[in-house]
Structure formats: C-alpha cells, structure tokens
Predict the structure.
Amino acid sequence: MKVPFNNFQISKENNEILCNNHQYSNINNNKYIKEFEKNFANYINTKYCVQINSGINVLKTALEALKIKKNEEILIQGNMSPADLTYLIKLGYKFKCLDFDPDTLLVDATKIEENIEKDTKVIIVSHAYGYCADMDNIMEIAKKHNLYVIEEVTNAIGSLYKKKKLGSIGDIGCFGLNAKSNLKVLGNCAALTINDEKIYNNVINIDGIMKNNGQNECYTKYISPNKLDHIQAHMLNNNLTVLDHQNKMRRKIREQYKKCLSGSKDILIPEQKSLCDSCSNLFIIKVICKQTRDKLREYLNHYSIDTKIHINIEHDRQRDTQQIKHKVKLVNMQNILDCVLYLPMYPELSQDKIKFISLKLKKYFHRGNLMRSLYKKVVNDLSADKTKTYKFASINKAGFMTWFKDDRTTKQERITARALIKSNRITF
C-alpha cells in the first residue's frame, strides 16, 4: 500500500478554471484578488486581508508594516520556519529565542516577560503543527509592554483558540498558501489579516503603492498581481468554500491516529491544549532520539509510507551570529525537533491507510524493543562471565549502535559494550 505524504488534488471547479483560462484573460486581475481578500477576511473574522506574492515575503512585509527597525529586537520561538528565519537574518533583523514547552513544542508564555528588553518591539508567535499558543497570556504581556504580536498561521489555517480563528488575535496574521497548506493553491502566495486600519494602510503603502481614486490599482514587488494572478485568486476562492469541511476531516484523522497509536510508550504525540481546536496540515510524533527517528523513517519508506522531517538551518549550529540572542535555546529546540517525524495528513487519507501506518509504527517499536532487550542481556551476560563471547549477524550492527546511543542506555552499559567490542568478545 503506497501512502504519499501529501495528496494535492485539483477539484472539478478548479480544473475548469485552468482549462478555460483564456476566458479570463481580459479580466482585471484585481477582481479575483479583491474577492478573495474580502472572503478570507470574513473567514478569519478580521477587518482586512491583503494578499502578497509569496510566503517567504509574508513576515518581512508584516515587520515593515509595523515599522520595525533593524536594530530593534524580535522575540521568536525555535521552531519557526527555517526558511523564514534564514531570510529575515539575511535582511539584518535581530532576534532573541524564547523558551519553549517540550510537551507542546510551542512558546512558553510564562517565560516571555523575562526576555523583554528596552529594544524589544514584537513577538512572532508560530502556531506550529496547528497547535494554538497561549494567546491570552501572550496578548496580555504584549499590551503591558507595548509590543506588537505577529501570528504565523501557515500550518494552522482554520484552527480556533477559544472559538477565535488564529490570525485574528494578534496585530497581524501571516498565512503562507501553497499546495501543502490547509487552504491549497497551485504555486506559492500568502495573505496577511489585519484589524487595525493604520497597519493595513502601512501594508498597502509599502514602497509607495500607486493609487487611483482611492483604489489600489498597482501593487509593489511584495504585493504584485503579476505574481498572484487571477488563476490563483480564483482557485483560493473556490477552495475557501470547502475549507471547513476539509478541516473537519483533518480533525477526524488526527483522532484516528491517536486512537490507533494509543498504548505505545515509544511514540509521543505532543499535547494539545483544551482551549485549542486544531486542524493542522501536519501530524507529528516524537520518538526517543534522532537515530531512532531516522531508522523509523527508513523502515516506513520501505513500505512506501512517505514522511517528512524538520529541516534545521546550518548556520544555527555552525556559524555564530550576533543577530540571535540565546541561540542555545534555538539549538535545544532543534535538538528536540531532530526526534520529530511528520506523518501523512490530508483530508483524503483513508482509515485503512491510517491503520496501515499505525500498524507499521507499532511493529517497528515492538521489534526494536525485543532487540533492545537482547542487546542489553548480551552485554550484561558477557560482563558477568568473562569467558563468553557473542557474534551478532552483520545486519544487527546498525541496531546495536542505535541501542548504544539511545538515551535509555545507561552510561555503564555503554562503557561495558565499548570494552566488549574492543576486546572482540562482541562481533558482527
């Protein structure tokens, strides 16, 4: 059974748009863009929405709209998009990493205040994996210290916090839109949602948008009809009408995963706060260590189950930069994300495929636990009887090394195992 990670399908309505593109060639592009901006603002329940040309520019545009200067500080969490962070660092912005909750993989709101300094101006809250951050406390802290709050909602489009749509609570909501997001579209674009009229005017006047009778007839390089064409806007409008139904399916699939994986001590599913109604485009599991995750991914790939991992950005580990304070928190977060695996998650994912994936996961860890017990028993037996030796099949060498590096293996077991291998009492 083949299980792709994503299953982007073009609906009948969107296929007609693509096939009959010539019928729209003389229509002003802004018509469909403005329709979507109005519809999406209504969906998120904000006063305004502005579409821009790409997801990589969405946070940049938000920071420019809030007039954040390059020498002012931005608070972030360690699992924000690596591409976004890399881009903003190259643009010269300054960051400070916040503490995170290892159970939810979200920012720890109780420790935000101690990180605020005189030059701190904005908090970027990433609603990672569709989970909702503690927005009540975050907004209270932001109000107390006169900070802006930007919500990054790409992986949580349609999720609710206390019955409020994410992207409507902070000063600006940022949504990356592509073939993998909840609200799907061919290509790559983005949207910002805003309630404050001044901030909205700042967005549409970035680089001096030309105006004609009060209407925005020409967009800048950030808000460009040449990039976000009428095809994308028209498809987004169609897909928005079925988003709630698809999100309902995502919630159902999440619960099916949880039910099928219940009882496994080797698989941790990050907690979801009771105040959050999540509809993520990702389903994540956390295992004991990176080696286990990589071996598990290889095992699932053998059965044609496609998975993804969090990609760390190289300079976080390899290059010291003055633009990131408390960088150790970023590295610590990325060490945790090294143990995370993304499983297939899309509305069309059948119950049979969910059961198939879950069965393979359980079988892998059952087999792994049996082998762990064997490795441990051999090491202890050979340690007790100096005359014994043990020869493993060569195929077990990788598994033995995984056991050796596993956090559950004690320091003394490692010392003993190393000595047994060095003296050739354990061979492969």
